[in-house]
Amino acid sequence: MNGFLFNLLLAFAWAVMTGDYSLSSLTTGAVLGFVALWLSQPLTGIDRLYFKRLYRIIYLGLFFLWELLLSSVEVAWDVIRPVPRNNPGLIDIPLTVKNDFEILLLTNLISLTPGTLSVDVSEDRKILTVHAMFADDPDALCKDIKDGFERLIMGVFET
Fold this sequence. Notes:
three-stranded antiparallel β-sheet
């Protein structure tokens, strides 16, 4: 059985046993179910990829929150400065991700981060055009996106 479905089943079993179907109860059941599945991994035969993927999803979420915080401070500081230092521009970023969902996730994470906006994906899905508020060094911005969001997204969806 798939690790995620088994974990959901354990979360609902926890909710049934406690008689509480709130989000906090289901979350507690999911965490306890995850720990139980991890400990009984040799007996259940659940693939290790499930545990690794969940760790990578959490890491991607925390990385996004960190980037959100840093870019929010940078944009806010530039707005309140007497002389702004922004240098907007369009940057083409070659894509390594291939799957439509991976491209969608990457473009949304970029657009949700203040100071950057995904503008277009080429027809062959090999180039992503990004509008950046601080485009002083396009190569550094491209490297940051590829080494940050794109690498982590590829890690989540690796099979």
